[in-house]
Structures are given as structure tokens and as C-alpha cells.
Amino acid sequence: MPSQDFETANRNFREWYAQNYPLLRAAEKTYKNLIHLLLSGIEGVPLPKVLSRLKDRNECVKKFQRKYQTDLEQKSTEYEIKNYLTDIIGIRVVCLYESNIETVVGKLKSNFCLIDETNKTKELHSEDDKFGYKGQHLDLKLNNKRINLPEYKSLKDFPFEVQVRTIAQDAWSEIDHKLKYKKDLPSPLKRRVYNLAGLFELADREFDSLREETAKLVTAEIEKDEYGNPIEQPLNPFNFLKLVHAYYPKYNFHEDKIEGFVDDIREVKHDVTIIEVEEAMKNHYERIEEYREWCINQIGRNLNPYTQIRHILYRSNNVNFDALMFDRAKTNLNRWDVDGTIFKND
Prior knowledge:
The protein folds into two domains: 191 residues, Beta Polymerase, domain 2; 116 residues, no CATH class. 58% of the residues lie in helices and 10% in strands. It starts with 5 loop residues before the first helix and ends in a 7-residue tail after the last helix. It comes from Marinicella sediminis.
């Protein structure tokens, strides 16, 4: 397409964008929800934040002009603007730890068709004279398996870009985009920018290191034969994990939940000790396990270990641990304890 026909291409793209806007918006929401679902429950990976955006029509045209127009027209190559834009729909996945990125990227690659991939981290590390945000960019589209499903058929022609970053990388990206004249800064200022970028990189490493060291601490605590001085030892996440691991060895007490749960217990009884919780587990675990089995068989409801422990503590001392349970849950447990039933409409 000759250069003088850019206006035709521009007009055609704007018409295509307007006609497909409802589908583009639907595709954005669908891809975001699908990715959120796919990344839920990955073992050892806290659920990332998933964000989305639809690129404005004017932004699309400007990007095409900046990256592709000159080269295509110098070669007298015919083009349609939409065919050169894989990021009209953009998804951002923000991970808690840098070590999570590889797992998340692998999950995305195995569930979508990969068009292209750019590893910003490798690019940055390969050149000493550059600074900027890191992360991985994937250009994706629906795979053949999903395209044939009724709910996805109308979206098959819309590729999308996924940016996978850590929280620190995402924060640096926001700052980096606001820094003016980065390439032309005098050396002292440029050095300060490098230092700032280095701090964000160091933060990522420290986050991962802290997680690894904490995990080692938890494992060491679980493997200990004794608590030390359990009668006087206040309840904390480490001795709590050691205790409940013995009762629920196959359950993953996620690191982002366990501290909040222990805080809930300490809030209702601030001086609670590990031995107090251990006694409750010894004396009431089996009875609550019977209640759990009854709930599964009679009303089709399971009690996860966190909920079971709430029931165990409440049953061990319904005064001290009263606030750990909702009123209906307490009434149901008390009634089942007496006559083996609960409210039918619960």
C-alpha cells in the first residue's frame, strides 16, 4: 500500500475498531477472568493481581505509525493496521515474587497459543547502558481447543498481550514512565536513575530471599520434636503450623492466610498459648471430624481445616472463643452435638 493511502488504512481501522468495540470489550473481560481462573490455586504461588485495559483507537494508530508505517511504506507493502497490533487488548499479571513469574508464564503458554514473547529481564541484563522496568511480555491468542467452544468462537480473531511482572517491577514501570528525557540526562542524574532502578531489583531479590528463609524456618519448626517450653509459649504462626500439620499433613496452609488466622485467635484471647490450642485439638478434633463427615453426607457441605479449627476451639471453650464463630454456625454445632441435626434451611 503506497504511503499516500495511509489515510485509507487509518479510516478502515477506525471503522473496524468501532464495529468490533463491543466484542473487543467482551474479549478483554473474558481474557481477564479466564487468566484469573487459570492462575488460581497454583501450588506455591500466591494468587497474582490480574488487570486489563483496552487500548484507545488513537493510541493504536500512533503505535502503528511509530513502529511499522515507515518500514512498510518504504517496501511498498500493503497492510491493514489491525494485523500489526497484538496489544489492543492488554492484560497485566502482577506477581508477589520474582520466582513466581516463570511458573505463571508456563501456565499461560500451556493454555493459550503463543504468538511472540519478549523477556524484558534478559534484555535489560544483556546491556549495561539501559535501564527500565523488567518482566515478560507474551503475545497470545486462543488455542484451537478453546476456539471451538461456543463461548469463545466470537473472540477467535482477537489476540492479546500479557505483561507478567512483580509488584516491584510494576511500581518501577509506573515511575519509569514518568521520568522525562531519560536518554539525554547528564551523567550524574542518569547514575541516580540507575541506582533507583537497582533498588527495585534488590527489593525483588530480598522479597524472594525472605520468603525462602521463612519457609526454611517453618520447616525447621515443624520438624522439631518439642515446642521448647510449650506451656508458656504464646501462640504464633510457627508453632501453630507445627501443631496443625500433624492433624492435616496434606493441607496447604497458605502463607498469606496463616498469619491472619492466628491473629484472629489471638484477638479473641490475647494470652492464648500453643499448649491451650494443642489440648483443644487433642480433646475435640475427633468429634469435629465426625461433624464434618455428617455435614458432607447429610447437607453436602465440607468444613476446611481453618473452619474445623474454629469449631474445635469454640467447643473446647465456648466463652473464650465465642467470637471465632458466627451465631448460626455455633447454633448448628450445639444442636448437632445434642440431637444430631442442624437447621434444615441453613
